[in-house]
């Protein structure tokens, strides 16, 4: 596993989703649901927690068609 592969703060993740033109749709329980352009599935994560686990980030990035390394590079500059 990459040494940079670590949990991400929810606020940073939401900022990244907005950067990718994703739109917040709803909250069901503790899960936030976002719709991203060109994604067949919604992006879902626990917004009630302070951080999102690395595997959830990886799964959502795969849905978005974005490389993990590209996300962490963006995060380093913007969060």
Summarize the structure.
By secondary structure, this protein is an alpha+beta fold. The protein is built from three helices and five strands; from the N terminus they run E-H-E-E-E-E-H-H.
Notable characteristics:
two-stranded antiparallel ribbon, 79 residues, globular, 3-stranded antiparallel sheet
Task: Show the helix and strand layout.
Layout: E1 8-9, H1 10-19, E2 23-28, E3 31-35, E4 43-46, E5 51-52, H2 54-64, H3 68-78
Antiparallel strand pairs: 1-5, 2-3, 3-4
Structure overview:
The longest helix has 11 residues, at 54-64. The protein is 41% helix and 24% strand. It has 79 residues and is of the alpha+beta class. The relative contact order is 0.25. A hairpin with a 7-residue loop joins strand 3 and strand 4 (43-46). The radius of gyration is 12 Å and the shape is globular. It is built from three helices and five strands; from the N terminus they run βαββββαα. The strands form two sheets. It has a three-stranded antiparallel β-sheet with strand order 2-3-4. A two-stranded antiparallel ribbon has the order 1-5. The mean pLDDT is 90. The protein has a single domain, classed as Metal Transport, Frataxin, Chain A (2-Layer Sandwich).
């Amino acid at each position: 596993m990459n040494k940079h592969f670590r949990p991400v703060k929810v606020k940073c993740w939401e900022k990244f989703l907005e950067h990718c033109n994703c739109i917040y749709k709803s909250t069901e329980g503790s899960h936030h649901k976002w719709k991203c352009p060109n994604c067949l599935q919604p992006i879902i994560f626990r917004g009630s927690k302070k951080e999102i686990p690395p595997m959830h980030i990886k799964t959502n990035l795969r849905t978005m068609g974005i490389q993990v390394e590209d996300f962490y590079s963006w995060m380093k500059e913007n969060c």
